[in-house]
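Hey team,

Filing this mostly as a record. A colleague (T.K.) asked me to run one chain through the structure pipeline before their review meeting, and I want the input and output archived in the tracker in case anyone asks later how it was produced. No errors, nothing strange. Just documentation.

Input sequence:
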Amino acid sequence: MLPDRTGFIVWVSDLKAARSLERFGNVHYMSRKLHYVVLYMNADRAEEAVKQMSRLSFVRKVERSYRSELKTEYTKDSEDKTRFYSL
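Output structure:
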């Protein structure tokens, strides 16, 4: 069974030093323009890893990603109105 994964957005001041964040989890994306890193790690060790990351000198702020809590299944409650507008 796959472990539960948690995503974090880590705002950094130095992208070269941000490469060292790979020891905490999988680095999914690094934004050069906005200076943030999207990082995924196991949920069971996330709390202690966030404390360690926030102590690093190049880390400005660590935010939890809410992507896993967003609704991804959509229902069609209303009637399709495209047939009324066709020529």
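Quick notes for T.K.: The first strand starts at residue 5 and ends at 12. The first helix runs from residue 15 to 18.
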